Fold this sequence. Notes:
This protein is mostly helical. It has helices at residues 3-6, 11-43, 47-81, 84-96, 99-102, 107-125, 128-149, 151-198, 200-206, 209-261, 267-277, 282-303, 305-308, 363-370, and strands at residues 324-329, 332-334, 337-339, 343-348, 379-384. Strand 2 and strand 3 (337-339) form a beta hairpin.
Amino acid sequence: MKIRTIFKNLKKDQIIAIISGTLNIISMMLTAILIQRVFDSFSGGNYNDVKENSLYFLILLGLNIIFNYIFQYYYRLIEYTGSFPLRKFLLTNFLKSDYETSAKFKKGEMITAITDDSLKISEVYATGFIHMIIEAIQFLSCLIIISYYNILIGIFCLTLVVIGIILTKKISLKIGEGSSLLQEKTAIEQSKIIEILDGLRIIKQLKKEDYFFKIYSKTLKNKENVAKSLSRNFALYADIYTFISNILPLLTILISLYFMLNSDMTIGAAIGIYSIVGALTEPISLFSNFLNNYRISNKIIEKDKKLLNFKNEEEQKQLDEFKKLDFNSKKYNFGEKKILENVSFSLKKGSICVLKGESGVGKSTIFNFINKFIVSDDVDVFLLE
């Protein structure tokens, strides 16, 4: 199953978020143009144009607030609930699998897969693509408007952003690897806690509290080492992003002043550029974060592929779908007692069968084998269509 199909029910909300986000960006870009016109009209003494453009500015500002509210509502709704379809899918697959398959999963692995892993995957497939589309539209809109005012400043901004993306890309690879490793360590930690809780009575009886405390402390130490490495990479990444984010607006102002002194740019155009240039740096973090999350989600999907690839309800042979059931048992050891020696029978759908025998001879065990609650190499159950 393709992972995208699990999130198909979110499509309507995703489309609304993208449309409202796009309208929000358009209104924001138009307000920047109106700011330029207001300042140029004021400096030119055209006060009627100042009033007219100021009125348009207020109207666009109101629309911007409305569009932003709609976008934020649907985006946050998807962010908070976008993992629910995957959580339902994982738990449903787990519950509908046969006991032999589901028993192979540890409690900690299941908890991590359904809670933490589903969140990481939904960051890409629920909200990640929305964010990428919106930011791409915003970036292109800003670049077009800046280039409209001054093509050289547009080229300069684009060059600086590309340099930022290249510098952060390598660091983001390390961050992605570290995040995946931290996720694995979290799953191990949860498994250790569950093991301790499940065996608490025996631990107390054998007075092994210190032993298990040392095991858990070692688990946390390994997790701490991963966290330190991840923190160093995040710090370096943040340094590069912050530097470019701070330097880009300042450099555009200085370049704008040069063109203004040569009468190649108005003060309104310079203010218009400054009001939107900050949005150009967002793709530096967004692109790297999305690649990070995409790599992490793929690794998680690979890790959880057994859970994701359980046969669905249509593919399973349900008990009510078989036409014939064959049961063959050579023997089965129930503790020290040997039961079900050389037992075999066949049942046709609709026939009635009564199992009779003393307590402990294996009547309930036969039902457990049929339902795959227990398995054995010496016992075969075949459901024939």
